[in-house]
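Hey, resending since the last one bounced:
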Amino acid sequence: MTPCGEKIRLTHAHILMILLEEGVLNKSISQVYLARKLGINKSNIKRPCDDMEKEGLLEQVPCEFDLRQKRIVLTLKGKRLAKVLQKNSSNRFSNLFKQIPKDERVNVLRALDILISALSAFEVEKIDET
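The structure tokens again:
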């Protein structure tokens, strides 16, 4: 089970959420870009994409400019599942947030903003090192 309450591999759920976030419901992104968003190298993106293609969640289309690269396109099944995951995740985190005492919610959100900023800075440093 993932935090979004579905029986799906965490990597696959993460990929679907990235594709949904990136507005890929009606367009495509490259495997390289997807790997970067996941924080993995491009050689490690092929397997989950192949698995998800076998499951009918996405298609991998050769890039018209560089046939070595593939573009990721969500199938109808993938779009539906991505929307379900997003809804379930949103509901789950909304319910979690409700468990935080009202007078502490602002502090928790501030702490999360600080953590996100720190993670973003860390990711930039990590990219600069490679």
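The chain has a mean pLDDT of 85.

Sorry for the duplicate.
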